[in-house]
Amino acid sequence: MARSKELASVSVLIVGALSLMMFGEGLARALFSSMARLFTLTREEIYDPTKLFDVVLGALSSLLLPLTLILVVLFVAALIGAAGVGASAFLLKPRCQSCRK
Fold it and tell me: What is the pTM of this model?
């Protein structure tokens, strides 16, 4: 069984690619709607800081869910990958001195 650190890195990369495949469409749609809103500002919104702040927060709030989903999946994959490599190294380590020969 492989016990290298690259095993954890590869697991994070593979899960990252899979999470982008699953949540990428939602992220792209959110980016499209945010950019569409931010590129169609009115004159009143541009010159009023409170309206501008509300528009920017409203446009970027749609990005929160897809980004959070992707980051949570990557975080869990990193924890599982690191724990898996550490657990396999711990389980495969001999327990007694006479077993190490």
Answer: 0.70
